[in-house]
User: Which sequence fits this backbone?
């Protein structure tokens, strides 16, 4: 079967790889000159399957009120303009903050994330991909006693889903990650998930794109997609500036741009862009930089070693598709690295970056069919797109091939909205 994948981020490339493995004739279209140049370019690097809590949860509401109007808050809503889609999304987000909905959404996200981690490990073995990966786990740290207490109770709850979240005292945290012993604030404790991993999503995407090309996948770079043409209830081509690119099936993997191209088809995808920032710092003293990926839960920042670089990433700004960077937001990331890992790197050579997460109101991705039988969705992965990319790509390839996917699809499709 001929399949066109729209988007060459980590999601689109993983989908293309699995489709080619299944014997399909695959073409990937992207407006960029190569793979992984948008949201997959400089993210937090965490494969955080065991930290797959939805953004929408009962604890977020008091935090949102506390953060309101603060330019340095981990989450900034710029809701001043009248954008019906954003307000409708906000209302749906609020209805997902109940304990019952949070439990349902957590299970859905975990289902994809855990499967995806296995797929990533299998791919790594098969293809010997080099992407600065580390399988030393993820340690979430807490400087606020109340937040640590809450996280410790949440860990017990999450272990009921088969996870292994280990509650650690501050001394135990320093044993897990000795570089933290230089931190300036007093540490209350942490939650460690040994089975989680980290690595550079951009390098991975590039390496997998090369492997996919060897497997016969064709790429159409520098090709902005204008529209999806349809006739008689089927997609019959991808409209680009110069031509109509046709196939038997099409996969929409355009992250936060997916709703823009889906809307003219009558498909309302409840996805909004949430801008996040990262800063990449060259490591000058390896002993003072972490090997274990660290999450500073109170500040919603992650710290990941990628070879000889330290990446700090996080914060979210709901401000449409605007990618401009507010200096205060990336500079506070550098300040936090200085506080946790003083003297680990060349801070004056730090490289800031911003990208748009594709967020659904329930924090689960949108995977699977649409009312157009030859159009498939692989989008809305939010904060966990790197974590879910391989599993989601494999699931979509199986569905297109008419095979039973490896995990149940209940609650993952567009029909849940
Ligand atoms: C600051 C930050 C930190 C993050 N940290 C983590 C983390 O630690 N772990 C994790 O799992 N996830 C993380 N994420 C999320 C993760 O990076 C994303 O979910 C993931 O990269 C999305 O991949 P994608 O392929 O769906 O999207 P993208 O990488 O954005 O790919 C979409 C592609 O579509 C193309 N495109 C869009 N519109 C058009 C068009 N009209 N025509 C042609 N091409 C088009 C773009 O050029 C792009 O290449 C983070 C995100 C951010 C912003």
Assistant:
């Amino acid at each position: 079967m001929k399949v066109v994948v729209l988007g060459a981020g980590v999601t689109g490339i993983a989908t293309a790889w699995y489709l080619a493995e299944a014997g399909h004739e695959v073409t990937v279209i992207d407006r960029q000159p190569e793979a992984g140049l948008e949201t997959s370019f400089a993210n937090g690097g965490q494969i955080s399957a065991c930290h797959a809590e939805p953004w929408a949860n009962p604890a977020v509401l008091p935090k949102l009120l506390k953060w309101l109007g603060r330019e340095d808050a981990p989450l900034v809503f710029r809701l001043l303009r009248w954008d019906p889609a954003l307000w409708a999304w906000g209302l749906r987000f609020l209805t997902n903050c109940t304990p019952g909905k949070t439990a349902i959404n957590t299970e859905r996200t975990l289902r994809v994330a855990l499967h995806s981690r296995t797929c990533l490990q299998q791919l790594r073995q098969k293809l010997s991909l080099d992407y600065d990966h580390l399988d030393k786990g993820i340690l979430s740290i807490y400087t606020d006693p109340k937040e640590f207490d809450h996280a410790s109770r949440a860990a017990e709850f999450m272990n009921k889903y088969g996870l292994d979240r280990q509650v650690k005292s501050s001394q135990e945290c320093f044993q897990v990650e000795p570089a933290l012993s230089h931190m300036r604030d007093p540490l209350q404790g942490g939650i460690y998930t040994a089975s989680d991993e980290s690595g550079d999503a951009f390098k991975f995407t590039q390496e997998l794109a090369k492997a996919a090309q060897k497997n016969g996948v064709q790429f159409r770079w520098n090709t902005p997609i204008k529209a999806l043409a349809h006739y008689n209830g089927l997609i019959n081509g991808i409209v680009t500036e110069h031509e109509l690119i046709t196939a038997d099936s099409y996969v929409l993997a355009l992250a936060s741009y997916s709703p823009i191209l889906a809307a003219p088809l009558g498909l309302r995808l409840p996805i909004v862009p949430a801008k996040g920032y990262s800063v990449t710092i060259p490591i000058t003293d390896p002993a003072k930089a972490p090997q274990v990926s660290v999450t500073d839960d109170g500040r919603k920042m992650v710290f990941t070693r990628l070879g000889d670089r330290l990446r700090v990433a996080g914060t979210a700004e709901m401000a449409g598709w605007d990618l401009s960077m507010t200096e205060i937001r990336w500079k506070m990331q550098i300040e936090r690295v200085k506080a946790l890992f003083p003297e680990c790197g060349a801070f004056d050579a730090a490289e800031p970056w911003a990208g748009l997460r594709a967020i659904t109101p329930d924090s689960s991705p949108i995977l699977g069919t649409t009312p157009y039988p030859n159009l498939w969705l692989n989008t809305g992965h939010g904060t966990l797109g790197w974590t879910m990319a391989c599993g989601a790509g494999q699931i979509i390839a199986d569905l297109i091939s008419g095979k039973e996917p490896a995990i149940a699809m209940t609650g993952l499709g567009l029909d849940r909205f």
Observations:
- The radius of gyration is 21 Å.
- The chain has a mean pLDDT of 94.
